[in-house]
Amino acid sequence: MNEVFVRVALDHPLPTLFDYRCGTSLAAVVGTLVSVPFGKRHVVGLVCEVAARSDVPAERLRDVDKVCTSCPPVSAHWLALAAFAADYYQRGLGEVALPALPQALRDASRWARLFAPEERYRLTAEGRRALPDALPARATALRALAQALAQADFLLAADARALHPKALATLDTWQTAGWVTLEVIDAAAVPAAPSLPGAPAPVLPTLTDEQASAVEAIRDADGFAPFLLHGVTGSGKTEVYLRALAAILAAKPDAQALVLVPEINLTPQFEAAFRARFAALDASAIVTLHSGLAEGERACNWFAAHTGRARIVLGTRLAVLASLPRLEIIVVDEEHDPAYKQQEGLRYSARDLAIYRAKQLGVPVVLGSATPSLESWWQADQGRYKRLTLSRRAVADAALPTVRLIDLEDERRRGRASIEGLSGPLIAAMKARLERGEQSLVFLNRRGYAPQLACDACGWVAGCPRCSAYVVLHKPERALRCHHCGWESRIPRSCPECGNVDIAPLGRGTQRVEETLASAVPGARVLRIDADSTRRKGSAQALFSDVHAGEVDILVGTQMIAKGHDFQRVSLVGVLNADTALFSHDFRASERLFAQLMQVSGRAGRAGLPGEVLVQTRYARHALYHALGRHDYVGFANATLAERRDAHLPPFVYQALLRAEGRTLEAALAFLEQAAAELGQIPAAERVTVYDAVPLTIVKVMHVHRAQLLIESASRAALQATLRAWQPLLRAVKGVLRWNLEVDPLDI
């Protein structure tokens, strides 16, 4: 039997491909998933090359175990995208390509079940109304089944059986009652992409002149065209996305679109908007991809995108690496958001990869934001991106909110009392909104009850035994919790150092503000939305639904509530404790603060109600707050870019960060110092500036000490050449537990 040889990418730190022998009967082609032996394990890899011979000695070659024939191979464009990401972010090809696939595809034992015909159950509108009241109060398993149906777009039969032993019989009964529908999908089939059938067109809102111009520019784009859609909050950026996608999907019957959002909690409202607008499409033609999905659902959605069944893919940063063979447009909403930068494993920027992918395919990419990143703003200034501006809100009588600063120092001098950090003017404003039946939003980007628990007698502060950080008090859970490693303990009855029983919380988190508002604004229905209150799947969507339904008077939350949400009844936004970011060591802190405040300010007055924003500050004369009061992003961006240019900071230079983790801080610093010395062997490093190795702000996490070494260059090419030559030298340096290189770091 004739043999061929395949070079396979594996999820392994070594930046190389591995040769295997493959019989022609297995039909492995480039882009195919294969199961191969690797050491004592059997792992899944991706075929990147097929050759008639191999340079590896025959006695060292091993055979491919199995080829996944049910899944069509990924395209050459997708492999090229993964190769670019691996090269630019200094990782092996397998470390990029394999993690980009759903976990279910990376387990060869699941291939047969994964591509078998699937039974999917969907909850009907009637079932959504009737099921909660139809189930007995004590039927916990049935209620779990109903909740799973309500929270997901569909429920697989296998997942249903795991929730209830008689789930399928129950679902059949519910199907007879009209509460659920059943569809059987042959996942292995590769259907033609669904076209837009004739269906009643939805009633569309009238576009403003600026919106119409933006849609026309995107629709008429020829080839690669990067657009920066700069629109004030409430200006109708989502409507521009919808119209642009509709035009492209109608013009190209098999086209696909990718829409990225920064956070999982934004996907439900975007999905609802897209399903309402594209109601003529089959339900499976719009899918979501994010880490919050169950493994089976994520695999189904990925496969729908991979085969072309899905016309619109909506997801978080991981969706930028989804396989979309007929991709014709990419949209990145809130493109400035730091959440688009992966902070573990492959430390990629989804926004930057989206731009590269659009250039690779020759398609338009739309970057939307009310506060674009300074990198994108500068690119537009240089003429590399086409700037589209939406300068006013889409609703005719909706004006931008008035921003007023509450000077806490002036309040103190005048002897005006505050209640647990809430000033008198802010409380009075919330009471006025309550009387008018309007909603208020209080923004504090610090979860928990208090950031510290301390003893006044001896100065003890509760710290984490595993990290160089204080633990956060979580009063409802009666726990002290480390937000870095997850360590948790009960709240002590007295100071462990001196025995003083009068230990007290220092500072305020969202839990404490929620408690204070319950007494400061009597009769108000207060709701808190943060990472603690939305841990369970579907809980964030349920809480936001309560807000939209008017069942909440005052909403308290972190950055989760600051962006993207269209709160129709919110007319007041209060901002607490924003000053902490004004004097950060991070040069990007002011940019992030301004973006956060502009975004959260935009939640007020979106439906025609007069909006007001009250910012509590001790630095009322700060230029950032004055720019915020004028809603002057352009002035703020230009001034900040001038400062960055003078200080030789990004986007005017390119940076990379080498982090090291050791059992001691000395070991981590010694590794970095030796790594810096190795740069002397690299010619391209002559154009690179190397800074001293320093500890991270949080030096120790989980008993591991951390340090960093920053390098930068005015030439991206010189920096990349240096990093490529540096990698093998770094592997020869010993003495630390782990090290990693991050290109274009956001947190320094």
Query: Within the largest sheet, what's the order of strands?
Result: 11-12-10-13-14-9-15
Largest sheet: 7 strands, parallel
CATH classification, class level of the largest domain: Alpha Beta
Rg computed from alpha carbons, rounded to a whole number of angstroms: 28 Å
- In the predicted model, the low-confidence regions spanning at least 5 consecutive residues are 188-198
Q: Based on CA inertia axes, which overall geometry fits?
A: globular
Could you tell me how far the N terminus lies from the C terminus, measured between alpha carbons in angstroms? Answer: 57 Å
CATH architecture of the largest domain: 3-Layer(aba) Sandwich
What would the CATH topology of the largest domain be?
Answer: Rossmann fold
Structure description:
By secondary structure, the chain is α/β, with parallel strands linked by helices. The protein folds into five domains: 3-103, GIY-YIG endonuclease; 118-185, no CATH class; 209-390, 3-Layer(aba) Sandwich (Rossmann fold), CATH 3.40.50; 402-450 and 507-643, 3-Layer(aba) Sandwich (Rossmann fold); 654-743, 2-Layer Sandwich (Alpha-Beta Plaits). It contains 22 helices and 31 strands. The protein has a seven-stranded parallel sheet, sandwiched between helices. Helix 18 links the parallel strand 25 (570-575) and strand 26 (612-617). Helix 8 (209-219) runs parallel beside helix 9. Residues 188-198 have low confidence and may be disordered.
